[in-house]
Amino acid sequence: MQLKGLLSRLFGGGYGKSQPDVSPNRHCSEFEVNNWAISDFVIRKLFPIVGFKPFPLNEQMLILAAILRLRPTHIFEWGTNIGKSARIFHEVCKEFGINAEIHSIDLPDDMEHVEHPKERRGYLVRGITGVTLHQGDGLDTSLRILSRCGAADVSPLFFIDGDHSYESVRRELEGVIDRVPAANVLLHDTFYQSVESGYNIGPYKAIEDVLGKRTHSFRILSQNIGLPGMTLLWQPRSKRA
Known about the structure:
Layout: H1 3-11, H2 35-50, H3 57-70, E1 74-78, H4 84-95, E2 101-106, E3 131-135, H5 138-147, E4 156-160, H6 166-179, E5 184-188, H7 202-212, E6 219-223, E7 230-234
Parallel strand pairs: 1-2, 1-4, 2-3, 4-5
Antiparallel strand pairs: 5-7, 6-7
Helix pairs in contact: 2-3, 2-4, 3-4, 6-7
């Protein structure tokens, strides 16, 4: 069955005639978006481009919800790979009129890593206006770019999706929180399935330990019903929330 036909059956015969309202209730204290509307956008626009790996549909919905609610001026991510997450950020910002600079960072070409895409790095976003590809350490590169902005109303969103070891995620999350107190943070691969399971629980434990030793204003939203898992740390008092 053609994708459009399937969507028509899922969402009714009027699919595609009008877009539902996705405006979040930003006047409310709790995080709320229109789940039906963002489901529509994920299936209609994002799924044909990025599929569902490494980001299942529920995780794509969380990314979309975070951008709509928080309306970042800058998005910094590391772990570019072929550019799926950067493309998601771009498509959401373009569709909903969010003027955010997107900076995606990956390892230098001469470094070896099991997930290093080499010549395929960022091919889904190459040449797209508003998306800039960088190579280097994700945290250091992001902070260096941010330091040049100098604007008082900068509202950054960080996406931590590089080396998923406990040590790396802890260093990166601590660096963001300590250096950019107003930031909101998305983290990938945060599913927890007990130490005995053999899964990498490093990102989950890093979040737990970093937040546990600090007084903070973060609220936590997670899509962690199975692998790989995604967590949003958001601050209700953010200027744009």
